[in-house]
Amino acid sequence: MEGKEKKARRLVFIPRDVSPFYEEKEVEFKWEGGLPDAKTFSKNSKNLIESAKQKLGLKEVFEVSRAGEGVFRNFSAFELKIKVDIKTDLYLEVVYQYSKVWMSESCNDLLQIESEMAKSREAKKTANQKKKEKKVMEKYCIKIGNLEKEFPIEPKDAFYNWLYIFALMQDQNKELREKLINIDKDRQVGFTDIHYKIAKNKYNCQARAVAQFIGIYRSKSEGFLRELFPEDSIQTLKGFLEGGGDELFKRYMGEVYKYVKNPTLFPSSE
Q1: HEC profile for the chain?
Q2: Per-residue pLDDT at 52 exceeds 60
Q3: Residue 268 has pLDDT above 50, yes or no
Q4: What is the pLDDT, as a whole number, of residue 128?
Q5: How many angstroms separate the CA atoms of 28 and 20, rounded?
Q6: Which of 24, 42, 107, 168 could be stapled to 143 by a disulfide with Cβ–Cβ 3.0 to 4.6 Å?
Q7: Cα–Cα distance measured from residue 80 to residue 77, given in angstroms and rounded to the nearest whole number
Q8: How many Cβ atoms from other residues are within 10 Å of residue 1's Cβ?
Q9: In terms of C-beta density within 10 A (0-12 exposed, 13-18 middle, 19 or more buried), how is residue 62 classed?
Q10: What's the whole-number mean pLDDT along residues 123-150?
């Protein structure tokens, strides 16, 4: 007798023209077991994509994680890099995780991260350990040498999405940015991350950030994005913040989340 077919659920993120410029849809699909390796995640990602296209009526759905195909693997936060200063490039995941400030702790200087700590998975492992120790996260803080800027933890997805879009707007990621703009021409696309499980207290996801980027682009135009991320100062994260990037973050919050009634929750996520 054959066993019952196993099912799983994941979120599909769809660009929208109004705040917060994305929508979440939960999709059920067939989960094929196996070792938790790249082959298994790739196989299940394809199942998720086919189910999402069928159930949501989307023309295309793209996996933007390491389980993605071809260039879409590079949208993973474990692959996408941020130029912190002239000499320092770090994976987005590293910058994000080490921007977290836990109670009774100080900001982490991104220029002082040891080489072994700069591995993305090590950065995430460190943050997860803080959670296990039941430490409370107080804020985000980007510290680059003597420069130190603080950012709020509400709305819960805002800092991560902003940081991700910042990375996309930097020159080294121009090809990835243009790839997103070109695939959205028919406006029937969605994005997934097979690794992102639906759960409370899980808010930040690269597929959500990608969908928000496209939603802002199609609704507000590239010119608006360039107002938030000026070309003359975005070459490095340090230069951007020295030029008032933290104030532009406030404008991003005001424009992108202005119609979000409860900024601590996201549509359809809980």
Answers
A1: CCCCCCEEEEEEEEECCCCCCEEEEEEEEECCCCCCCHHHHHHHHHHHHHHHHHHHCCCEEEECCCCCCHHHHHHCCCCCEEEEECCEEEEHHHHHHCCEEECCCCCCEHHHCCHHHHCHHHHHHHHHHHHHCCCCEEEEEEEECCEEEEECCCCCCHHHHHHHHHHHHCHHHHHHHHHHHHHCCCCCEEEECCCCCCCCCCCCCHHHHHHHHHHHHHHHCHHHHHHHCCCCCCCCHHHHHHCCHHHHHHHHHHHHCCCCCCCCCCCCCC
A2: yes
A3: no
A4: 72
A5: 24
A6: 107
A7: 5
A8: 3
A9: buried
A10: 84
Q: Is the pLDDT of residue 239 over 80?
A: yes
Residue 261 has pLDDT above 70, yes or no: no
Distance CA 62, CA 49 (A): 7
Question: Positive or negative CA dihedral for 118, 210, 229, 250?
Answer: negative
> For residues 214 and 16, what is the distance between their CA atoms, to the nearest angstrom?
8
54-101: pLDDT as tens digits? 999 999 999 999 999 999 999 999 999 999 999 999 999 999 999 999
Q: How many CB atoms lie within 10 A of CB 197?
A: 12
Give the model's confidence band at 134: pLDDT under 50 very low, under 70 low, under 90 confident, else very high.
Answer: low
Task: Of 186, 175, 192, give the one whose Cα is nearest residue 25.
Answer: 192
The tokens of 163 are what? 């940081």
Integer CA distances (angstroms), 121 to 14, 71, 118, 180, 219, in order = 27, 21, 9, 25, 34
User: Which residue do the tokens 């189910």 mark?
Assistant: 51
Whether 200 has a pLDDT exceeding 80, the answer reads: no
Q: What are phi and psi of 43, to 5 degrees?
A: -65, -45
